[in-house]
């Protein structure tokens, strides 16, 4: 069998992932069987699992890529841009996250893999929150941990509403309102932030 280059391997791997993403979105997490993954990707079972150990591995790779992409948007363009990215995401794919959520409670191995996905970008987002509170982009009357939890809840809530078919009627007005809520107010003389402890690993936008 002729050997293929690393570039070809990476391209084939990406093609399998994109096909798997479509399959998960169309059939749901449980419904995306190996046969359907084969059909969607045009690859045999052996070819698919030459690159991935299991269906879980494929899903977690997609989650990690999504978290990194969303994290880069957040870091480079700001939190409002991250909210817009959620609004523009395929609702069917977001629904797969909700479907897989049950396993986070019942499957420790799956939960550990899910938390490991995107760990590095979450660390960078935690640092972003600290910096944003320090330079006045975010309100600093709460700890970085609390602010990180709030931002994660806002992202997750928007994703859930989109996934169940009730996206915001006026997303820009909603995003503007959220920006007003999290934006720092003018500082008062003698004002000091409450809570200065550095945020933990899961403080920023964990999904």
What this model shows, in words?
- There is one protein chain.
- By secondary structure, the chain is an all-alpha fold.
- The chain folds into 2 domains: 1-53, Homeodomain-like (Arc Repressor Mutant, subunit A, Orthogonal Bundle); 60-207, Tetracycline Repressor, domain 2 (Orthogonal Bundle).
- Helices cover 70% and strands 0% of the residues.
- The protein has 10 helices and no strands.
- It has helices at residues 6-31, 34-41, 45-48, 55-77, 79-88, 91-106, 108-116, 119-135, 144-163, 171-182.
- The longest helix is centred in the N-terminal third of the chain and has 26 residues, at 6-31.
- Residues 188-207 have low confidence and may be disordered.
Features:
2 domains, mainly alpha, 10 helices, Arc Repressor Mutant, subunit A
Kindly state the percentage of residues in helix.
over 70%
Q: CATH topology of the largest domain, which one?
A: Tetracycline Repressor, domain 2
- Give the overall silhouette: elongated
| Termini separation | 42 Å
Count of distinct strands = 0
Describe the biggest sheet?
none
How many distinct folded domains? 2
Helix tally equals: 10
Structural class: mainly alpha
Beta fraction: under 5%
Whole-angstrom Rg? 20 Å
* CATH architecture title of the largest domain: Orthogonal Bundle
Give helix and strand order, one letter per element, not per position.
HHHHHHHHHH
């Amino acid at each position: 069998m002729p050997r293929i280059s690393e570039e070809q391997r990476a391209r084939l791997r990406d093609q399998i992932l994109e096909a798997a993403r479509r399959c998960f979105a169309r059939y749901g997490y449980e419904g995306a069987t190996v046969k359907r993954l084969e059909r969607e990707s045009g690859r045999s079972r052996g070819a698919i699992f030459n690159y991935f150990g299991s269906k879980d591995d494929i899903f977690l790779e997609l989650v990690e890529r999504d978290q990194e992409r969303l994290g880069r948007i957040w870091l480079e363009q700001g939190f409002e841009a991250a909210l817009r990215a959620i609004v523009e995401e395929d609702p069917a794919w977001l629904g797969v996250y909700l479907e897989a959520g049950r396993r986070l409670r019942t499957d420790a191995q799956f939960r550990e893999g899910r938390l490991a996905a995107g760990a590095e970008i979450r660390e960078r987002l935690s640092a972003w929150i600290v910096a944003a509170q320090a330079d006045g982009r975010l309100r600093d009357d709460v700890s970085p941990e609390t602010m990180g939890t709030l931002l994660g809840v806002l992202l997750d809530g928007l994703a859930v509403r989109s996934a169940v078919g009730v996206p915001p009627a006026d997303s820009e007005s909603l995003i503007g309102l959220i920006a007003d809520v999290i934006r720092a107010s003018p500082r008062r003389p003698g004002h000091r932030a409450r809570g200065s402890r550095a945020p933990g690993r899961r403080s920023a936008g964990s999904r």
